[in-house]
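retry 2 of 3: previous attempt timed out while embedding alpha-D-galactopyranose. Reduced batch size to 1 and resubmitted. Inputs unchanged:
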Amino acid sequence: MRRLLSALTAAGVLLGLSVAVTAAEVARPPSAYALDNGLALTPPMGFNNWNATHCRAEFNEAMVKGIADIFVSSGLQDAGYQYVNIDDCWALPQRDADGNLVPDPVRFPNGIKAVADYVHAKGLKFGIYTSAGTKTCNVAGFPGALGHEQQDANLFASWGVDYLKYDNCNNQGVDARLRYTAMRDALAATGRPIVYSICEWGQNQPWTWAPSVGNLWRTTGDIGDSWGSVRGIVRTNMNLYPFAGPGGWNDPDMLEVGNGGMTGTEYRSHFSLWAMMAAPLLIGSDLRRATPATLEILLNREVIAVDQDPLGAQAKPVRNDGGRVVFVRPLANGDTAVALYNETDTGAVIRTTAAEAGLGRAPAYALRDVWRHETTETAGVVSAYVPAHGTVVYRVAAAKNWADYAPATDLSVTIPPAYPGATISVVQPGTANPLSTAFTNHGRMPATQVATSLSAPAGWTVQATSPPTGNRAGTEEVFDTQWTVAPPAGAAPGSYPLTARTTFIWNDDEQPRSAAVESAASVLVPSPPPSGTQWLSDVPWVHATSFWGPIELDRSNGERGAHDGHTITIGGVTYAKGIGAHAPSEIVYYTGGQCATVSSDYGIDDEKSGNGDATWQVWADGTLAAEGSATWRDGPKHLDADVTGASFVRLVTLDNGSTNSDHTDWAAAQIGCD
Ligand code: GLA
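retry 2 succeeded.
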């Protein structure tokens, strides 16, 4: 708190807190916060090449300069992006005769200082990377700074480095606090202000000690360009909100926005959640190839303003209903940022109230949607229909002028779950599948002439089966409509969008105004059920999720991209057929009542040793049909499941409390059908 107060004072924020702190205490940095380097009073913003290039040759001087150019030309610098940082692989594998690090002359023919000078000439800052170990993380084995802290810090300072990311590989088992404190002190001794980024992946609970050591600290393992990765990181990082504040931030890793592995909705969620969590915004895609859609996300100033809010409070998750999460973040000007985050695979209305979000009582509130750039008024409910993997962010404030705004509404599309407890919806070709829409008005102003339409892909049949019924529940107005949709016979398996649209009139007592709200949901058309006995790795699934990396067919899970695992191997036994997942995972097959048995060997893949334990389950619709557990020590085990009559069969793995190394193989998995 003291550190927060001094930072707030430095940022010119008025102190409205009833905490007894003397002026002397505020002025003098308390010894508990030995770092107090005056840097990163808001989360650092900039670029790091790692997610885009890893160690590949395209990481070089031309790239880094090109990024600096784009920072200026595309408006990123004006939006607050400042640090152009380079990651691993910039050095030669050997130090020089004096023990100094040597820039790789192929990648950086003019050295690092020339690049730093170029970046500085644009009014930007420059960052570098090394490891708190004998070598960095890359297998090529570039020298790390353990035991060379002062020499390396001095070299970095002489090059004009403004930011150091200090990694954790090859640390020789030396206590993390000692290693990271040694570099903190070495940086301080250079006299140059250098933002200090601790990268020990959350292994030693850095949030408990790093606020006095670094300006930011990684809280998790490396991010990947996948929804599973973002979702997993958020689950950990969101609970660490008490530890962040000006000068010291939780770091859920660099951005993947623009790298191509996620949808626009997912990238907007990623960016929104990083902003809500007061995370560093380090762009991790090659901006030289950025699409307008990527730049629109990265340049969203309303979202950036949440991230950079000078109060520096990381959002608190105040509600989490099975992955439908409400985040609340107080802002320096008295507004409150509220994020409605849907990590699940089904669209849903997520709601909270101004009271739950900590706002005082008021006749009405203005909701500023920072992605739509629109303001609406609510009598108190703060809600939205949030698509699967989506996030809606509002800036909320009590509003006297609420009558200037259209009423806040939401429009939900509810499709029955595929099986009890399912987070996916499936529609059968040639059948009238039921669904409902509901339009709700949360505003003080009534909505009239409410009309909802539903559109489906060409060739589908859509029918309203019961007309809209309006009713008033408290201050809210709800209008429900029942529908059926039918995909044409022979519709190709896959995911299809259904879009609902409600138009209405609101009246501010002077002139009627029209408004519209639109929501989209996706439904899955399944492949026909399998027949005979088949390897499950040859049967198309309806839906699949894996904690790290995609589900792999006939390979183990390599945690990152597709096809990056190995031959499935459990306890030395190799399998040509099978499925590689990372717990928690789920694979859903449509069996349409045609299948009877699932049999599989299972175990933690040998590519992980020393860790990993999990539970394997086979589900027949909502019924558990077989279950077993194994750890990395076990050889292959076997399970048989009776799935007779099930419409859906699911292979599920659970992490038994920790996701570490849970490379869960389904080895030689087979299904027996009619
Ligand atoms: C570790 C870090 C990454 C990246 C690589 C470089 O994995 O966590 O962010 O710096 O090393 O080798």
